[in-house]
Amino acid sequence: MAELYGGVETGGTWCVCALGHGPGAILAETQFATAKPEPTLAQMLEFFRAHPRPAAIGIGSFGPVDLDPASPTWGYVTATPKPGWRHVSVGQVLGDALGVPIAFDTDVAAAALGEKRWGAGRGAESLCYLTVGTGIGTGLLSRGRPWHGLVHPEGGHMRLPHDRERDPFGGSCPLHGDCWEGLASGGAMAARWGVRPEALELGHPGWALEADYLALGILNLTLVASPERVIVGGGVLGHPALLGMVRERLPGLLGGYLGAPELRSEIDRYLVPPQLGDRAGVLGAIALAQAL
Amino acid sequence: MAELYGGVETGGTWCVCALGHGPGAILAETQFATAKPEPTLAQMLEFFRAHPRPAAIGIGSFGPVDLDPASPTWGYVTATPKPGWRHVSVGQVLGDALGVPIAFDTDVAAAALGEKRWGAGRGAESLCYLTVGTGIGTGLLSRGRPWHGLVHPEGGHMRLPHDRERDPFGGSCPLHGDCWEGLASGGAMAARWGVRPEALELGHPGWALEADYLALGILNLTLVASPERVIVGGGVLGHPALLGMVRERLPGLLGGYLGAPELRSEIDRYLVPPQLGDRAGVLGAIALAQAL
Fold it and tell me: Burial level of B265, CB count in 10 A (0-12/13-18/19+)?
């Protein structure tokens, strides 16, 4: 029997803990609301203490986080706008309390790794995992591994063209106003239209606007990082036609500049939905632990 | 004596060929205007045939280029707007004619590698080389090596906020209009103001606009790719205060979101000028050959 690994996804709303080997081989799993740090971390510890000790635990966390192994605050959530979670240790607390090695990364890097290993990212050495939900997050793999540089990718906060005549909404990001997340996240849609995205009727013009913003942001991701594939997930993509609308727009924005067929006729091989669904994060966290 | 390496930089305006080992150890060098492909390639061959055969030749080319070693058009310039150069073989022609191994990459990836090896990029494993000249080009290193994904980085063509009241100029990019290159390259400045950037007086308001566009583009590069350092070169940076103006603007655009000191008080360690100057490309091409 292969060794057991633990996975933790700490999302802005929910936390998931799991123990196992991968999809179809999860021995135990639990999910609970992300509350204040202390009770949330206590629930994680309770889960792992109630089960056999894994060889390692991977954590995919909402960001921004400190990923520098040489930093005294490695494994911390840093300057998050999430109340109570600024400068909170997650990785070190779990590692110290449980006595197991910890792999710590962003939730989107974990999801990218999970999709590469078991899902829609198989065969791609460079990969972007984009999630459009409450916020917008981007994870990058380079040469098959999560990309870290100075900090980590936070493409959701890039700036895009914003035509204020067509869209007078000022943006919902508390830090940047009309950054990508401020214009196109589920939170932005809810603030602009007064209803949550899942309640916005399918033919509402807000969806064409959303497709335009998603295509612009994915255009910039494509031009800056040139991943082999972009996996587009998150709650906003629950609209059944939205991914197709984005696929229609992207080649026109590129204007024929890059010759790859994946950016033209074969765009449905470039912009793909996740295959692990909302389990990409926790499965990716297990993959992080396995790659330690 | 260490083995000899060849370096070729094929720029939009000039080509440089060199033979040697690195800065301070160049045995022969030549520079000529980039004409039509046939006579230009003939001049490259003439240079290398007149000298001892190198162990390998690195080529840093203007883009877009085909970098896929499995592609029949590896080593080609592809969909460039440069007249006569669309779908032209460079790497294969040189390799076949000279019988030496060829390392082929973009000019900006070569420059990034050269600066990492001998210049302003030393010590950084991930690095962005940004050049703002006739056009805008971006090269990325990941884990010390040029990043290739689906194609290669072409960050100069990303879209940015464009306030048409402040800047009614429609943009100079023949493919995308007001992309970053269309708004902020030297070509865009010349088209907007009617004089070449080096002739625009230092106090002209066009420089504040330029600094705003450069800071916005570097913000997006930082958020998408999170490099450890951005090396900012190219003719437009000849303005003695421009880099400082960009450094002033970037932390404000980030809004305190990412905690790294390099993005705040130590921004002069994050946004840095090249140390190899206009020799980054050809020296980087030699570094490409040495890394083959």
Answer: exposed
In sequence order, the 6+-apart residues with CB closer than 8 A to the CB of A161 are: A216, B159, B160, B161, B162
Q: Do residues A274 and A239 lie in contact, with contact meaning Cβ atoms separated by under 8 Å?
A: no
The answer to whether the Cβ–Cβ distance between A220 and B220 falls below 8 Å is: yes
Provide φ and ψ at A129, rounded to 5°: -105, 120
Nearest residue, CB atoms, B158 vs list A147, A176, A219: A219
Residues from chain B that touch A159, judged by Cβ atoms under 8 A, are 160-161, 216, 219-220, 253
In the prediction, which pLDDT does B1 show?
Answer: 54
Q: From B81, which residue of chain A is nearest by alpha-carbon distance?
A: A257
Q: Å from B289 to nearest chain A CA?
A: 21
- Selection from A105, A3, A94, A15 nearest residue A48 by Cα: A94
Judged by CB atoms closer than 8 Å, whether chains meet at B149 and A228 is answered as yes
Average pLDDT, 10 consecutive residues per value, chain B (292 residues): 90 92 94 95 97 97 91 91 90 96 97 97 96 95 93 96 97 96 98 96 96 98 97 93 98 88 95 93 96 92
From the CA of A229, how many Å to the nearest CA of chain B? 7
Residue whose structure tokens are 């006569």: B84
Contact A253 B159 (CB under 8 A): yes
Cβ–Cβ gap A150/B257 under 8 Å:
no
Query: Which amino acid is present at B215?
Result: A
The answer to whether residues B68 and B150 touch, using CB atoms and an 8 Å cutoff, is no
Mean of pLDDT values over A167-196: 97
Residue A242 confidence (pLDDT): 97
Neighbours of B113 (CB within 10 A): 31
3-state secondary structure at position A9: strand
Distance from the A53 Cα atom to the nearest Cα atom in chain B, whole angstroms? 33
Inspect the interface and report whether the beta carbons of B151 and A229 lie closer than 8 Å. Answer: no
Q: Is the dihedral of CA A196, A41, A15, A285 positive or negative?
A: positive
Contact between residue A41 and residue A91 where contact means Cβ atoms under 8 Å apart:
no
Average pLDDT, chain A: 95
Using an 8 Å CB-CB cutoff, list chain A residues near B249.
none
The model's pLDDT over A2-19, given as tens digits with 9 standing for 90+, comes to 799 999 999 888 999 999
Strands of chain A, DSSP E: 5-10, 14-22, 25-33, 56-61, 76-77, 88-89, 102-106, 127-132, 136-142, 145-146, 230-233, 271-272
Please state the ipTM of this predicted complex. 0.95
Q: Which of B175, B216, B255 sits opposite A255 (nearest CB)?
A: B175
